[in-house]
Amino acid sequence: MKKTRHQTIWEELFKVFPQFRVKGSLAYIQPVASILRGLFRERSIDPESFYVWVFIQPLYIPSDHIFFNFGWRVGRDWKLADPELIPKLRTAIVTEGLPFLESVQGPSDIPEAALKWKQPAGPIIQQIVGYSYARIGDVNKACEVLDTLVENAKQSGYGRSLVPEVQAFRDLLLNDYNQACRLLEEWERDTRRKLKLPFGA
């Protein structure tokens, strides 16, 4: 199949970033341990433009798709016709994308990254932080964050769909920590498989 202009430019963009692997519209930092760290090319309504998301996604959060809740758009819309498109995008990646992606090496970096993030901590972010605390063995902090998520969701309705899973995981964490850890590992394997990411380090 002939490559589109979008894909050709996307692949050219990352030739100077050997730490990234390009897979379709996704470019992610290797190796992939428990957290997917990357950039994603999103089409805009204008066929001559596109958006770029920088994001992190812990694989131990159950998901069958890439989500951008812990991330943002780099710049505005990028124009294919811009003769300086690739150098401008590379500069944006170096100045805005890489510092964020490289600040999160593992689950222990998630809570601090969430505190520094300029967006409000919605239920998905709270779930990510709570599960990350669980992943590193801080049960008290994990339960504190997850209890806050549940309480906020019950009051506002926002994030209510997460409540059954979060409550069940929180109870398991308190009653059988080892089994909770195994569940996180199972979710990580399942998410990795659904996103078609390589296994191993």
Would you give an account of this structure?
Helix 6 (163-175) packs across helix 7. The chain has two domains: 5-106, no CATH class; 108-194, no CATH class. The chain is an alpha+beta fold and 201 residues long. It has helices spanning 5-13, 85-102, 110-116, 123-135, 139-156, 163-175, 177-194, and strands spanning 20-23, 26-29, 35-43, 49-58, 71-73, 78-79. The protein has seven helices and six strands. The model has no long low-confidence stretch (mean pLDDT 91).
Short structural description:
With 201 residues, this protein is an alpha+beta fold.
Structural class: alpha+beta
In total, how many domains does the architecture comprise?
2
* Helical content (DSSP H or I, runs of 4+): 40-55%
State the separation between the terminal residues, measured CA to CA.
31 Å
How much of the sequence lies in strands comes to 15-25%
- Based on CA inertia axes, which overall geometry fits? elongated
Low-pLDDT residue intervals, each spanning 5 or more residues: none
Rounded to an integer, what's the Rg over CA atoms? 18 Å
Mean pLDDT across the residues is 91
**SSE order, one letter for each helix or strand:** HEEEEEEHHHHHH
Q: How many individual helices?
A: 7
Quaternary structure state of the chains depicted: single chain
Largest sheet: 6 strands, antiparallel
Number of strands: 6
List its salient traits:
201 residues, alpha+beta, 6-stranded antiparallel beta sheet, 7 helices
Layout: helices, strands, pairs:
Blueprint lengths: L4 H9 L6 E4 L2 E4 L5 E9 L5 E10 L12 E3 L4 E2 L5 H18 L7 H7 L6 H13 L3 H18 L6 H13 L1 H18 L7
Antiparallel strand pairs: 1-2, 2-3, 3-4, 4-5, 4-6
